[in-house]
Amino acid sequence: MESLLSIGIALVAAPLFPGIILKVKALFAGKKGPPLLIKYYTLMKLCKKGSVYSTTTSFVFKMGPVVSLAGGIMILLFFPLGAIAPVLSFHGDVLVLFYVLATGRFFTIAAALDTGSPFQGMGAAREAFFGTLAEASIFAILILFYRMTHSLSFGEYFTGANPISLTGPAGALLLLVIVALFIVLLTENSRVPVDDPATHLELTMIHEVMVLDHSGPDLALIELGSFYKLFFYSAFLAMIVCPLNPSGGLLNLPVFYTIVVLVYMTIGLVESVMARFKMNLVPKFVLTSSILVVFAAILTMGFIK
Amino acid sequence: MNFFLLSLAIIVVGGAIPLLTFRQFVLTKCIYISVTAVGCICGLYAILSAASSPESLAWSWAWQHVFTLSFSFDSLSLFFLLPIFLICPLAAIYSFFYFERAENSLKTAVSYFFTNILIVSMALVTAASNMLAFALVWELMSISSYFLVMYDYQKEETRTAGYLYFLFAQGGALLILAAFGVIFSHNGSFDFSRVVGIPDSTKLLVFFLAFLGFGSKAGIFPLHIWLPHAHPAAPSHISAIMSGVMIKMGIYGILRMYFMLGATDIRIGQAVLILGMISGLLGVLYALGKRNIKRMLAYSSVENIGIILMGAGFGMIGVAKGNSLMAGFGFAGCLLHVLNHSIFKSLLFLGAGAVIRKTGISRNDLLGGLMKRMPITGKTFLAGSLSISGLPPFSGFVSEFLIYFAAFQGLKYNHINLLLSIIAIISLAAIGGLATFCFTKVVGIVFLGEPRSEKISLATDGGWTLTVPISLLAIACLGIGVFPAPFIELAFSGLADVSFVSQVDPQLVQTIVTNLGFASRLFLVIIFAVVLLRKSLYWRKEITAGPTWGCGFTRPTTRIQYTGASFSRSVIDFFRPFALSRESEVHLKKIFPERTRYASWVEDLAEIGMRQGLAQPLLSFLGKFRWIQHGNVQLYIGYIIVAILILLLILFI
Q1: Which of B174-178, B232-236, B480-484, B630-634 bottoms out in mean pLDDT, i.e. has the lowest?
Q2: Do residues B28 and B21 make contact, with C-beta atoms less than 8 angstroms apart?
Q3: What is the pLDDT of residues B320-343, one digit of tens each?
Q4: Neighbours of A70 (CB within 10 A)
């Protein structure tokens, strides 16, 4: 029951947080910024509209939004938000879930190529490339967590018998993971400095250009999917930064969401103080994260016997 | 009654009939397909009925009164028989669609004959239980497949490809024979069951000799270079059989040799794992760089052989470490990937063959927009692509999951095994990512977007002889992904006769299998729910059609679409110097430049290495002895007499 309530809150609240990023960026620039609920308004607006489909496209184009949103929902079902036991969990679920996200990416890329637009092809190539590198980092993190907890599921990482914790014997290594995961978060969710969601030139976009041709409810589904994905990564980061006691139940949620808001504010801050990288620097940036984690995993030879 | 022998006899007869009736083209094709299908079904029945007691199928045959050829079965050989009898009849049905020209009827009949010889010899390879029998049927397999590659023998490139394949097949066979020779020198017996008795120090040598030999058949980097030449040259269903089934015989040989030797040296597992990683990464990288759709699929076979070897490598490390969980899951992942790869790779080859047959174009960058014109080919190709990229809920993911599971077990150790496991897991993730890259490229460039050439607009799906095989294969891809339980159990049962693996807790396997299937089905349910949500959002909405948004460019042509070369360029450059992308320079001279040309290609490190490091020095060295070969027959006979004299002298002194 608690689990269902928790996932329900997350599914409803996820679009709220990107509004925080916008607000932080606006305040940083000395502007008032859009209202916090801006993303809800956007979703509602999009859902009221119809769509224009390019005559070039086939059913694959329509599958893109659907599969990427389904992936976002699926991964949240398995994640212990605020150390509340997830709705579903089994040994090995992390492997399935990151591959489910990859299925979403497959369809997003295929949908972009389906339009036949050169710009979308360019964005698709970049997304596929950076996604591959980020995937390598993610698996490096899973390796480290396996060394620390001997488990392969989100539930066991944070609510199991041997949870991940900064104060644990190998807690110092988690500092490296936090940095690496933040880099992966920025990459996978197309944030500055990897990608700029607010840019105006198609040539410099990654994710935004891939969805140029989607409109109306389809675009709303894509947006919602990306909100869930960003929320998942932020929650993952929050749980590592501040592990909560599983016995806390629903009372954990306020603490958890405070941390999540902090993560989003950090994203906003990073976006305010940094410019995006040149395209050829991005792979090196993403690789940094996997090198950090592999380094940490090798260090475990000293910590864990 | 031995149904297995009966099925082989039917298949041989099915192959021989076309040689007699080739003048009646359509009739020949019909007879061939039905007889072959009956033979394969009979073979499947033999496997199923013998599953509980594989020994019952054994038989032996005295040959030349001196040698005994003996054949017997165990769970491993039965498992490898499955893809043979499942894929080959589908490829045979497809051949009806593929061989459409009646004037080639004799060539077609010969191709049919060798196809069935190939099927029979592959089935016998899995059954051979002494060295002589194995060497004989292995040779038969290599030679029959050589003739199949040479179908279009009038073309120069086909002959080159055939020659290259022949070299690698025979070189590999030589190494296998060398391994057998070493064994024979120790125990003086041809029997496989007595191999285990040879000294441990020799086992390593024997294994690696055989590994190289079988590796050249399986297409392990750097012995893979015949694959990307032979596959584009061969007819598509032959590519499907060769890539889907025949190269797995190399894997079978490696596994058989490993189990037969009973060697538990950990270095074997580590070497196999490392070679698997190299094959996997470089295979998918070169696949990304290739323009020809069948060549790209050939490189993707190298990648999948790499994944299969990684599973085997983890299994072997698990055996060496006494970790039954790691051993069981590693080998089970390896076997299941063998089955999965045989299904989705033949699906992709058949689909690619249909595209080439219907459009006459084999270069990715000239195709496009086929999803609307060939919907069934397109959709099944999409299913195969998802499967080969290892994405849930399709089949490739299931076997990769098992291999991941074994790999994570490896993290329990320290030092070299920990490092290897870390690198292997990250490589597996990177291979998955790059495979997604590669197959979104193929699907996106070939099937989606607008047609890049005019010939495409007339393309349509073929008749049922095309659509039925590929649809069945696509259903199998999805089916294994959504209901993995029986197939994972099948893979584990393939290992039943290998002693250490039976120690894996069946309860644990059961739990994991159930969860995996549940997750796949859950994902499908969520997708279905989102589709319903989408439908409800679009209820009574205005939907209009227009051109793709060209970012302000008002006169787009189909030629401005992104091409495969540009799509993969950034990754290829990133992996320098393992994949070297080359391009021809574009010179703009004069005030009014002439028509310019541009070409870019990716070079295969192994191919360059073999050409410059082995073939060319060998040629220039042997060229110095050319004076021996002068065309004077009398002197040639003189050479022979001198050689015999010297041999006799050596023997009698």
Answers
A1: B630-634
A2: yes
A3: 888 888 999 999 999 999 999 999
A4: 27
Task: Measure the CA–CA gap between B25 and B103, rounded to whole angstroms.
Answer: 9
β-strand partners of B70: B60
Residues of chain B above pLDDT 90, percent: 57
Mean of pLDDT over chain B: 90
Considering Cα of B537, then B541, then B547, then B552, what sign does the dihedral take? negative
Q: Give the list of residues 6+ apart from residue B184 with CB closer than 8 angstroms, or none.
A: B131, B190
Does the structure show a pLDDT above 90 at A179? yes
Residues of A in contact with B530 (CB under 8 A): 66, 69-70, 73, 221
Give the orientation angle of helix B105-127 with respect to helix B75-98, to 10 degrees. Answer: 170
Quick one: pLDDT band at residue A19, thresholds 50, 70, 90?
Answer: very high
User: Would an 8 Å CB–CB cutoff place A131 in contact with chain B?
Assistant: yes
> By the CB < 8 Å criterion, does B221 face chain A?
no
pLDDT at A187: 92
Question: How buried is residue A175: exposed, middle or buried, by Cβ count under 10 Å (0-12/13-18/19+)?
Answer: middle
Write out the DSSP string of A106-151. Answer: HHHHHHHHHT--HHHHHHHHHHHHHHHHHHHHHHHHHHHHHHHHS-
> What 3-state class would DSSP assign to B562?
coil
Q: Does B95 touch chain A (CB under 8 A)?
A: no
Residue entry with tokens 């605020």: A82
pLDDT, residue B97, reads 87
- Cα–Cα separations (whole angstroms), residue B88 to A67, B122, B266, B293, B342: 34, 11, 37, 22, 10
Residue of A nearest to B540 (CA): A50
Q: What is the DSSP letter of A278?
A: P
Sorted by sequence, the CB contacts under 8 Å of residue B448 that are 6+ apart come out as A57, A58, A60, A110, A113, A114, A116, B368, B369, B371
The DSSP result for B269-323, as a single string, is HHHHHHHHHHHHHHHHHHHHH--BHHHHHHHHHHHHHHHHHHHHHHHHHHHHHT-
Contact yes or no for A132 and B430 at CB 8 A? yes
pLDDT tens string B10-43 = 999 999 998 998 888 889 899 999 999 999 999 9
Mean pLDDT for B450-456 is 86
Contact B449 A56 (CB under 8 A): yes
pLDDT of residue A305 exceeding 60, the answer is: no
The beta-carbon neighbor of A143 closest among B405, B425, B432 is B425
Are B404 and B428 in contact by the 8 Å Cβ rule? The answer is yes
Closest residue to A56, CB basis, from B544, B548, B571: B548
Q: How far is B182 from chain A (nearest CA, A)?
A: 41
Q: Per residue in B476-521, pLDDT tens?
A: 999 999 999 999 988 988 888 776 656 777 888 889 889 999 999 9
Instruction: Quickly count: other Cβ atoms within 10 Å of residue B581's Cβ.
Output: 17
Cis (ω within 30 of 0) for the bond into A193?
Answer: yes
Is the Cβ–Cβ distance between A246 and A84 less than 8 Å? yes
Backbone angles phi, psi at B67, to 5 degrees: -105, 150
Q: Is the pLDDT of residue B54 over 90?
A: no
Q: Are B331 and B495 in contact (CB under 8 A)?
A: yes
Q: What integer pLDDT is reported at residue B594 of this predicted model?
A: 80
Most trustworthy range by pLDDT among B159-163, B194-198, B582-586: B159-163
Rg (CA), chain B: 26
The pLDDT tens digits of the residues spanning B74-120 come to 888 899 999 999 999 999 999 988 888 878 888 899 999 999 999 99
User: What is the token pair recorded at B418?
Assistant: 């920990």
Could you tell me where the beta strands, DSSP code E, fall in B325-472? none
Q: How far is CA A183 from CA A189, A195, B339, in A?
A: 10, 12, 38
Chain A partners of B568 at a C-beta cutoff of 8 Å? 125
Closest C-alpha among A116, A60, A120 to residue B561 = A116
